[in-house]
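My main concern about presentation is that the manuscript never shows what a single data entry looks like. Each protein is reduced to its one-letter sequence and a matching series of backbone shape codes. For the editor and my fellow referees, an illustration may be useful. For illustration, here is how one protein appears when written out as sequence plus structure tokens:
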Amino acid sequence: MFRKILQWPNQKLRGSNESIDNVEDVQDLIKDLIDTCNVAMGAGLAAPQIGQNKRVVVIKPKVFGTENPDPSEYNKDFMVLINPVLENTGDEIKWKEACLSIPDIDSYVVRKETTLVKYLNDKGEEKRLIAEWPFAGGLQHECDHLEGKLFIHRMEKKKAAFLLEKWRRKKRKERIKAKRAKRAGR
């Protein structure tokens, strides 16, 4: 089921997220994350982005040019990571990121080239994976959400403040335009 994606500055995006003890408890959440990510045409989505402060992420490896190493039972295009723990290594790479929780803006951030991730999949199996660039960058982005971080928190404060102010102005203009259109339609 499609769920509304929370947008910055919603505090649920910055909250702490609980670990999952029983994967059966999050099967509906996993389906909602995958459905929402598909409708929003995202590369991945974390549970806090739909208001669920749980340590669950879904991601589409194909978007990063990687064959899916652990296809979900619900949708083979997606990989599900429950309680992921990342160990990032290698060179730093600067690349452009965007986020469904801050639509219409993107910017460069620095990520590590390689990620070792330990996680449970949607069947409850313990897994380990070494992800190389650019899939490693996508995993780091999505798992940052579980730590209460968005890509703007990986940027220089001045640059992030500039981007967010630009985004706020755009949202304000959209609200004014919508109000005018509503009044004109009466």
